[in-house]
Amino acid sequence: MNDTSLLEERKQRVMKTIRLEKTDRTPVVLEYAGFGAGAIGAPLGDFVKDPATATDMMIQAWEKVGGADAMEYPTYSPDMLSQAWLSRVYIPGRELSYDQPWQVQEQELLTPEDYGRIVDMGWTPFLMSFLQEKLGIDMMQLLGSYVQAVPPALERWQAKEVPVLVVGIITTPYEMFCGGRTLAQFVLDLYRRPDQVQAAMDAVLPEIAPTIIAVNKQFGLPAMWIGGWRSASEMLSRPLWERFVWPYLEKLACEVLDSGTIVIFHLDSDWTRDLDMFKTFPAGRCVLSLDSSTDIFKAKEVLGDTMCIMGDVSPVLLSHGTPDEVHAYCRRLIDGLGPTGFILHSGCDIPIDARVENVQAMIAAATGK
């Protein structure tokens, strides 16, 4: 790697690890949004003003902790969460006090009758109408402003010699419906009107990935992020999971892989029961990113010969542990899951209130610096 730039050195280390090839050391990939403000002592109301400000703070946080190998995404806008949750997002300085973390306000906005409307209208027209009528959001304007913010953000990260892995973030129909109906009502729907739910899911599926795949490829980024949280194994019986979760997760992943893009499965909550299902994907093309709920050592045992494992330093440890505790846990991960096919990473995002010295300890565990 001595003949390459620092940018290429970092990128090669991460990409070789994803391909299950040997590298000089375990790479460290960072994922955070609000920590960009927390690390530099800025209020969250400033962070959410616009994506350019978010990028600036995220880069300042990167420089403060130092030494990692890649960043997952280049900028952030919490309003984008409305599309994944079909819910209103309260923003600091708007609905919340200026330094209060943004919050998804889950309400029963999606109705049982909407399943039929989705089938009749098609997903994109329904979604545009739903966001406008229920949340006052112009979807095209929201997406457009975010996409416009991406090129300058990527340029800024590249100037710092930091590879960025994803822009495209998608999730399954299950997650979107669950957010729009509320967890309690949606689970009841799986029993009361399963055929209606499935018909709506089938109508949504073809429209989820193509646009995001195209955007991701437009910016030349290597991976896409497919998220799951309430669709985790611990939330549902196996028969329900196999009907309403897995077919859609699998098809989305195959669609992304067929485009020549790496899949990062961002899986919150406990997926241990169903790890074996992920063996169907081609070796060296996917990353399993875990949040410290799934047994990461079991994941390595089941999937280590086909899939890179990424994780799983918990938010609690990063926010409330000591640097020595963080370092010791990270070394346990590196020694137990390496030397190939493992990327050191936080469990989900690095939290807003993570201690800078703890993030530095995480990085040092891999880099020795």
Descriptive report:
This protein has 369 residues and is an alpha/beta fold. It has a domain at 6-41 and 65-73 and 161-367: TIM Barrel (Alpha-Beta Barrel). The protein is 50% helix and 11% strand. It contains 18 helices and 10 strands. A 6-stranded parallel sheet has the order 5-6-7-8-9-10, with helices on both faces. α4 (51-65) runs parallel beside α8 (139-159) and α9 (173-181) crosses α10 (183-192). It is globular. The model has no long low-confidence stretch (mean pLDDT 96).
Percent strand equals 5-15%
Q: Characterize the overall form.
A: globular
Which structural class is indicated by helix and strand composition?
A: alpha/beta
Question: How many beta-strand runs?
Answer: 10
Q: What distance separates the N and C termini? A: 18 Å
CATH topology of the domain at 6-41 and 65-73 and 161-367: TIM Barrel
Q: What is the element string, with H for helices and E for strands?
A: HEHHHEHEEHHHEHHHHEHHEEHEHHEH
Q: Unreliable segments (pLDDT under 50, ≥5 consecutive)?
A: none
Mean pLDDT: 96
Helix content: 40-55%
Helical element count?
A: 18
**Which strand order do you get reading across the main beta sheet?**
5-6-7-8-9-10
CATH class of the domain at 6-41 and 65-73 and 161-367: Alpha Beta
The biggest sheet, with number of strands, parallel, antiparallel or mixed sense and barrel status, is: 6 strands, parallel
Based on the structure given, which CATH architecture of the domain at 6-41 and 65-73 and 161-367 is correct? Alpha-Beta Barrel
Q: What Rg, in angstroms, do the CA atoms define?
A: 20 Å
